């Protein structure tokens, strides 16, 4: 079993991105600028956005955090998105999910200009990705691909089982893994809450992606000997022994699954580290105008 060290891979890419940012600044005087909109005070979202803002500072990006109270109306939020779309100094825009129930996330995603949609959530970016055209690719699936590539893990002809069909991870991951490029060329099965014989299907996976958002759902009996396991889950589970009152768990029961695998990502320290890197890469592409 080899542990996929997301932190080490992330620091490799961080150095590379920071270097490219300096080059861009020297050549064109431009500093990549990421804007994050945060609605309300959800603890996990606060943490994720704080990590993104911190990464911007570390890598030489400019960042702006726009906060709204959770009572903000959809119209007010959309107005802010349109204002940022029009601002040529702002390269990338993300609206942290989840949003309060009275705001339609699809309306928000579709209002972000596709050229600034560094989360890759706009239907145009998802469609372009599916067609293999240049597009912003959703950060978490992109991070998974970067890990597979970094460790030189063979994917062609392998059976990849994706557990979870979320629009931001499961769905794009399944599309990416079937493309005819590396890492890809997999036979892909996407599973979800209505899937029958889930354990049996998971046991057929050469590459198993846990992206359903249920702590420690994937157990050893669901994993084939020698499989590659990517754990996208990141859930806060109450833990009285921790100062924070919670511990972070993935979708995979790591201790019992890890010995059966050839490669596995830990939580924390696995895929999550790469999500931020992908977002920074997308923002750099936006600043360079590389995609649109
Ligand atoms: N919520 C959970 N993951 C993400 C993400 O990658 N981007 C945004 N905007 N919200 C999220």
Topology (elements, then pairings):
Blueprint: E1 2-3, H1 6-28, E2 33-39, H2 43-59, E3 62-68, H3 74-86, E4 92-95, H4 105-111, H5 123-131, H6 139-150, E5 159-163, H7 170-178, E6 187-191, H8 198-203, E7 207-210, E8 228-231, E9 235-238, E10 246-249, H9 254-257, E11 263-264, H10 271-288
Parallel strand pairs: 1-11, 2-3, 2-4, 5-6, 5-7, 7-8, 8-11
Antiparallel strand pairs: 9-10
Helix pairs in contact: 1-10, 2-10, 6-7, 6-10
The structure holds guanine (GUN).
Account of the protein in words:
It catalyses: (6R)-5,10-methenyltetrahydrofolate + H2O = (6R)-10-formyltetrahydrofolate + H(+); (6R)-5,10-methylene-5,6,7,8-tetrahydrofolate + NADP(+) = (6R)-5,10-methenyltetrahydrofolate + NADPH. Helix content is 40%, strand content 16%. It is built from 10 helices and 11 strands. It has helices at 6-28, 43-59, 74-86, 105-111, 123-131, 139-150, 170-178, 198-203, 254-257, 271-288, and strands at 2-3, 33-39, 62-68, 92-95, 159-163, 187-191, 207-210, 228-231, 235-238, 246-249, 263-264. The mean pLDDT is 97. It binds guanine.
Number of strands: 11
CATH topology title of the largest domain? Rossmann fold
Broad CATH class of the largest domain: Alpha Beta
Our estimate of the beta-strand percent is 15-25%
- Strand neighbour order, sheet with most strands: 1-11-8-7-5-6
End-to-end Cα distance, whole Å, is: 41 Å
């Amino acid at each position: 079993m080899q542990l996929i060290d997301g932190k080490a891979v992330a620091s490799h890419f961080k150095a590379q991105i920071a270097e490219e940012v300096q080059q861009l600044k020297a050549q064109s005087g431009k500093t990549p600028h990421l804007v994050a909109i945060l609605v309300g005070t959800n603890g996990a979202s606060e943490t994720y956005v704080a990590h993104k803002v911190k990464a911007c500072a570390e890598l030489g990006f400019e960042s702006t955090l726009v906060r709204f109270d959770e009572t903000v109306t959809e119209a007010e939020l959309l107005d802010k998105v349109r204002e940022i779309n029009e601002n040529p100094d702002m390269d990338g825009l993300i609206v942290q999910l989840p949003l309060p129930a009275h705001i339609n996330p699809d309306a928000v995603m579709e209002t972000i200009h596709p050229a600034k949609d560094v989360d890759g959530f706009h239907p145009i970016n998802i469609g372009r990705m599916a067609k293999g055209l240049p597009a912003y690719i959703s950060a978490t699936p992109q991070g998974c691909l970067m890990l597979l590539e970094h460790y030189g893990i063979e994917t062609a002809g392998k059976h990849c089982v994706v557990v979870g069909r979320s629009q931001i991870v499961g769905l794009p991951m399944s599309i990416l893994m079937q493309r005819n490029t590396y890492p890809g060329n997999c036979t892909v099965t996407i599973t979800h809450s209505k899937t029958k014989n889930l354990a049996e299907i998971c046991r057929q996976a050469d590459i198993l992606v846990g992206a359903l958002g249920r702590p420690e759902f994937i157990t050893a009996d669901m994993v084939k000997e020698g499989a590659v396991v990517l754990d996208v889950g990141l859930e806060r589970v109450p833990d009285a022994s921790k100062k924070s009152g919670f511990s972070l768990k993935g979708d995979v029961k790591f201790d019992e699954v890890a010995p059966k695998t050839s490669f596995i990502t830990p939580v924390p320290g696995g895929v999550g580290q790469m999500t931020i890197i992908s977002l920074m890469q997308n923002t750099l592409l936006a600043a360079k105008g590389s995609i649109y």
